[in-house]
From TrEMBL, chains A, B:
InterPro entries documented for this protein: HTH_LacI (IPR000843), Lambda_DNA-bd_dom_sf (IPR010982), Peripla_BP/Lac1_sug-bd_dom (IPR001761), Peripla_BP_I (IPR028082)
Entry GO MF terms: DNA-binding transcription factor activity; transcription cis-regulatory region binding
Native source species: Pedobacter kyonggii
Domain HTH lacI-type stretches: 5-59
Protein's UniProt name: LacI family transcriptional regulator
Length: 335, 335
DNA sequence: AAGCTAGGCGAAAACGTTTACGTAATTAAA
DNA sequence: TTTAATTACGTAAACGTTTTCGCCTAGCTT
């Protein structure tokens, strides 16, 4: 009863060899259906499940992937993980989580610690603190890797991103159509392609509409809510913009608070628009115009690509999967 | 160069036995400092990291824990995971994530799949669909397990919870002090101790203040936002309550929407108060009075307890760790 | 009847560690 | 000086699988 249940035990009870049991469990063609059935029924009866460590050791497959992200307590990333986990379940994979807290050293340390066979592949959305592409250039040769949202470009790896440039362009045009001419930019992810693309979309939209771009005031994100609040207030005081374009969700609270503290009415005095996956955007006061990324789908697509690679399936030609974001116009831009 | 780097390789290069290398790497007292240093420097030089599968197989330690929760895309759970992950890093543990989507069968299936030595312990917040304590009674004997927030009572396991009864009592009193007499209850987690405690706190507060409790209307949570909206609207129409006490975050959006659609002003016509970890509660229109649970700390405490168990440290007498929630009064209750 | 083929199975090595135990050399105790 | 204890290291088994290779039998083909 207390006896351990492993392949050896199954073999003994059935009076066959452990090799046969192993093959039967893996549905090998070498084993007759009759024997397979005997093995399967006994395995179920004894509640046998293979020991993962032994299996990994021998087969070099772990059925595990790692997700490395800045922080799980974030609407975008928690939704991505939800998507990843859902696909992982379908493929029978396990999901390990690592948070970098935007620290490149932690990111590298975690990643390195996974190269000893702990996982079969990695899904990552890189930290914003630095852009260290030498490291990742080497890394992608060592282990199957898929980037999502925050990527390194020009690498031989699948990258799942969104139409940052286009949607930022479109959103900026929306503000211009609402009559804004002094649109300030709340700048996040400045070291990353996503952040740069958003900013470029914003600048190009201004240029297209004949608004001098280099005079547009910018606040860069700091990891300190109070500091961001101060900077935005300063921005509002000095430049008196008629709109704030926030490129990351983290600016929403300080932006709203700054307007309140300075008695500026949204959207009459200042219009606000932000990249965000906040589910309560429509309940804010006033409701917030958002660019929402399909975080859940990004997670799903990234996971699907990785599992295709791990199962040696042909990837659909393209290494760059680009999903569309959605601009939802609400009261904060006068809609 | 391409040669694999494992203990055997280290042993060869240093002309010592693999046993010595293994012991040196594990800082065994049997090995001289001189030898240890030779091993450590070579290991660092060759970028050696032990193969986890081999190590697990032999030592029956995985340095891995599983977190089983309903859904990661939820403010409470994503914060909890953040806390768990942070402690796990300190202890050098890895964290696996599994989502049950409130499905008890998935929950049991995941848990069972972890009993073959894949993890050293489990952190779980159980699904709300059913209360199946026989299963968990057996389970806690098989593997170190810590419950957080959503627990099974009367089991020999650490449980990290919050003061649900007290804070619900206090919140209800707050509504009564605001002049409410017809307080409707939006009921979630009804199968779980947390849900029952919240409801009991609400009922007892009413009783204490001489309000007939059994006439209070209740809406029970369904996994369908549209349905919840309809039910709340129906509730508002039929019973004309002067307050809504929402026991879970998921009721916030339908509650606000219902009031808007029925042209009821918050807080003048209806006051609203909800359990919630929404970071933007203060930005809602109107800002929302919340009971926020210390989700991050709950995760941290749960993880700490588990790692103490795994490291055979003495647990501080008590198996029930109860943290305090915070009632933040805002405009939605007229504050 | 001899030779072949294929199907079904088993023996044994291997994966990379950890660890119980043995042993030699050195040191301490008698 | 002999004996006991200690230190430092090695041998080899074990963890539970997977997989290569080979064997045996039964059924065919000539």
């Amino acid at each position: 009863m207390a006896e351990v249940v492993n392949i050896k035990r199954l073999a003994q009870e059935l009076n066959i060899s452990i090799a046969t049991v192993s093959k039967a469990l893996n549905d090998s063609y070498e084993i007759s259906l009759k024997t397979k059935n005997r093995v399967w029924t006994l395995a179920k009866e004894l509640n046998y499940t293979p020991n993962p460590a032994a299996s990994n050791l021998r087969s070099h497959k772990t059925k595990t992937v790692a997700v490395i992200i800045p922080c799980v307590a974030n609407n975008f990333f928690s939704l991505s993980i939800k998507g990843i986990e859902e696909i992982a379940r379908q493929y029978g994979y396990h999901v390990l989580i690592y948070q970098t807290h935007e620290n490149i050293e932690a990111e590298v340390a975690f990643t390195n610690s996974l190269l000893n066979g702990r996982v079969d592949g990695i899904l990552t959305s890189v930290s914003s603190s630095e852009y260290n592409s030498e490291y990742y250039t080497k890394l992608v040769k060592k282990i199957p890797l898929v980037f999502f949202d925050r990527v390194y470009e020009n690498l031989d790896a699948v990258k799942v991103t969104t139409d940052d440039y286009e949607i930022a362009f479109q959103a900026t045009e929306h503000l211009i159509e609402c009559g804004c001419t002094k649109i300030a930019y709340l700048y996040g992810l400045e070291n990353l392609p996503a952040g740069k693309a958003r900013f470029a979309g914003y600048l190009d939209a201004l240029k297209t509409h004949g608004i001098a771009a280099d005079e547009q005031p910018v606040v860069k994100y700091q990891d300190d809510e109070e500091l961001n609040l101060q900077h935005i207030k300063e921005l509002l005081r000095k430049y008196k913009p008629d709109a704030l374009f926030s490129s990351i969700e983290e600016f929403i609270i300080p932006a709203y608070c700054a307007c309140r503290e300075m008695n500026l009415k949204i959207p009459n005095d200042v219009k606000i628009l932000s990249f965000s996956n906040l589910s309560t955007a429509k309940l804010l006061s006033p409701s917030l115009t958002t660019i929402s990324q399909p975080a859940f789908e990004i997670g799903r697509e990234a996971a699907k690509s990785l599992f295709k690679i791990l199962n040696n399936k042909q990837l659909d030609d393209e290494q760059n999967i680009i999903l569309k974001s959605v601009l939802t116009k609400r009261e904060s831009t006068g809609c």
